[in-house]
């Protein structure tokens, strides 16, 4: 097995589980009839994604650079868990305020679903995925609206993937979300992971933060998929190795640092002390998220410089 793929699987905790692939039609019908999610807005707790689906989403999102992509996950329900077995990409250009899924796209979707049925695929479309290149997985105001519409045809999940942060950190940056009903009073108890949100998106993030919750995401694979996974991996990996993270993600680093400097300026203007009397802690704020953010950019930039140097040594070293 490919060494880098093995490392990627270990780093992201991908387990082999053959049992998840068995499709029990009767059991699916039973749970779809019972609809336990109707009476409990936090019914779904987990989202398990196959490595095949993950690599397809990552490659799709990477190809679009800083544009957003969109597609549909295929899967089933097991207890309080979404099992995502596969995905298919939609020919659609999406932005945070507008999704241009025209008639052409709907036609493509219907044709693909028909083809999948003909091919004997039993899994159904279980939501939608889209990418947030460089600004992290969360739901924007538009996404919350889209997901609320999706949930009318429940059970549906919203998956958001960040290909740029995945590339710079080496760790998959993905989130799976469910929205609450509009009149629901969201509890304060959910502990979300630290996220750095660009300044221009913070307001939108803050307003809609309590309209949805995050599911626990994990990954699995099947030994039968190995060959396909290696092909997809090679495509993704070669794309990653042959491109320079410093150049490809230049926009991400520059806007990230600008953003950070604006956040620090905002913090400074809130303080009554003059600049030179402020300690570093005061400049960055006591808030733990703000303390982590400069560190995050420093580590990512370091990693990019380091991998650039290693590639230079490996590929251009002359004896
Ligand atoms: Zn979005």
Automatic annotation (TrEMBL):
Residue ranges of domain MPN in the record: 47-183
One Gene Ontology molecular-function label: metal ion binding
Any single GO CC term annotated in Swiss-Prot or TrEMBL for this entry: COP9 signalosome
Subcellular location: Cytoplasm; Nucleus
Keyword Cytoplasm among UniProt keywords: yes
GO BP annotations, alphabetical order: proteolysis
PROSITE patterns hit by this protein: MPN
Keyword presence, Transcription regulation: no
Pfam name, any one: JAB
Keyword field: Cytoplasm, Hydrolase, Metal-binding, Metalloprotease, Nucleus, Protease, Signalosome, Zinc
Similarity field: Belongs to the peptidase M67A family. CSN5 subfamily.
Name of the protein: COP9 signalosome complex subunit 5
Organism: Tetrahymena thermophila (strain SB210)
